Amino acid sequence: MSAFGDFARDAEDIAKQDPSLVDEGLQQVENFADQETGNHFDSEISQGFDQVEQTYGGGQDQQGQQNQ
User: Fold this and answer.
1) Residue 65: inside a domain
2) 38 torsion bin: left (phi>0), alpha (psi -120 to 50), beta (else)
3) Region entry Disordered: which residue ranges (predicted)?
């Protein structure tokens, strides 16, 4: 497996172990992306990050229910 593949697998394992880290990191990256684009792509950026958060972050609990 390539170095990137190893990195991606390790990142995925960490994300699944501690979803709060994913949520925090995604929020920081989302804010940076919004700032750099002048919020011109706010909707698209939010949709992408919501998808990642639901997959790896704390966006949903074990039964698939949205956290509140």
Assistant:
1) no
2) left
3) 1-20
